[in-house]
């Protein structure tokens, strides 16, 4: 009995030791866990603190960057404000200059309009006298420069670009200055000199001005007595193959140009006009003219007849004279038409300049 009790007691002790060992092991384990936990908690705290510091530093850097950017923006705004102020000042000056220029152009338009009215009165006053006496303003005899010759070959002149606008301004100023000098010198442009003389001076001024303008248009200056080549080209283009027409037209034109300059060929005849009066007219029955008409038609024939009539009227002996010409209607232009054309071109130029000035000034 006693032996059995001892064995049971020993077994219980063993179990107690085992439990105690396990409990101690658990305690040590938990202690290690707590220590590890505390270590990890400390490390986590350090990391969190470091993160806060980094975040604060980042935010501080962002604030500094924003401040710097704001300073740059403020500088740019100040520069833009100064530039805007300068632009406003320039616009104000440009508007003042534009207003002044428009006023000057309006005054010049009024002067040109007054000049046109005066010319109309002068032409009306002298038209009957010119018709009765058979007189007319003398054409302008000029030796053309290369530039003028090229311009005449284009059969007319037109305002083109800055150069043409400049010539138009010069022509307009010349007319105004002539009128002003005449009025200052004489008190009246019709005193001390005939009105015909003033018409001739103005016509000469217009002719010289138009000769400086280049390009084709319906109004300009024409070489009087010069044979027109286009009808010859048109006639040959109809009658001949394209590969032969150009050369044939050039040869035919050269033949008749030489014939026109031949002193021995004078296709004119004298006809009686109103009793004792006689007049020299073109002999339409001239053999050469009739042959040209039969072979090549009305175009070349009329071109030669027109050249003969112009040479007779302008007494051209190889040196061509120039006169105002209405290309649209195919006739000599009047002085009034020249002034009206000039005024119309000035108005167009004025409108174009105003539009350009408004665009430069930023106006709609």
TrEMBL record:
InterPro entries the UniProt entry points to: FDM1-5/IDN2, FDM1-5/IDN2_XH
Signal peptide: none
Region (Disordered) location: 124-161
Biased composition (Polar residues): 125-135
GO BP: any one term: gene silencing by siRNA-directed DNA methylation
Domain Factor of DNA methylation 1-5/IDN2 span(s) in chain numbering: 222-349
PANTHER family: OS12G0572500 PROTEIN, RIBONUCLEASE P SUBUNIT P38
Protein name, entry field: Factor of DNA methylation 1-5/IDN2 domain-containing protein
Taxonomic source organism: Panicum virgatum
